[in-house]
Amino acid sequence: MRLVVGFGGGSSPDFVARVLAAPMAKLLGQPVIVENHPGASGNIAADIVAKSTDRHTVGILINGNMTIAKILNPATPYDPQKDLMPLSIICTAPLVLATTPQVSKADGRGFLEAARAAGTRWSYGTPGIGTIGHLGMEVLKARAGMAAVHVPYQGNPQVITALIGGQLQLALLPPGLAQEQVKAGKLRAIGVTSARRSELVPDYPSLQEAGLKDFELEIWTAAAAPASLPGPIAQRLAQVLAEVIRLPEVRQKLFQHGYEAAGISGETLMRRVKADTAALTQIIESQGIKLE
């Protein structure tokens, strides 16, 4: 069995795959190896999974690989909803709307008012066009009436450096990255994008508490197989994944890395994929977002 990951060693999807590999191998009674195929925001790996016929390939994929990959780039060689079989959402996390103490000391409502008033004088950073940090901020801008300008970077570490250095005024960051800088006093957490406070950062309010009604956004990592995989094999893999994700040591490792273990079924994941695709497609089309 191979777990195919679309990002390099040390990335969050790679970490998730390696947490799963050993207990999966024990339950399956066969070796489970992690293969890294980085590139195209994980879509190279997703295409490998979609076209696999060996019945021993599972992809550890992120939101975009299973939702809007082909909408952002029509040249993407696979169709997420046709060519991938959802098995399970492994783990989830909200994003943290972050700024710096120098930009604002206001609470959530006050910060959003200041962001609206700033118009295009404020800018926000992301790890790239079409990432969840980018699309999530565009959703936030539409809901909050903001006009902050997008500045893409190579990754979130560069975004944090620019934020602390004053080149940016806000960003949506994974909680594991934001929390360290908030504790050091270099960043301020305005709120999280989940519907309610997150166990990962329980002291951070939700943005709904700041007045953004019905605003909810999460990053998630999921397992998917080729759509051609026979049903009984897919059911067995989904069962194994559910058992692994229930293990206390697995849940603890994911939590320490900034994720809440989920173990959500393939059917629920399929509904999530369709709902997220519809919501993000609306933003992509209304804002004319395209990969460059």
UniProtKB/TrEMBL annotation:
Designated name of the protein: Tripartite-type tricarboxylate transporter receptor subunit TctC
Pfam family, one: TctC
PANTHER family: BLR1237 PROTEIN, TRICARBOXYLATE-BINDING PROTEIN
Alphabetical list of Gene3D superfamilies matching this protein: Bordetella uptake gene, domain 1, Periplasmic binding protein-like II
Domain of life: Bacteria
Family in the record: Belongs to the UPF0065 (bug) family.
Classification of source organism: Bacteria, Pseudomonadati, Pseudomonadota, Betaproteobacteria, Burkholderiales
Assigned keywords, A-Z: Receptor
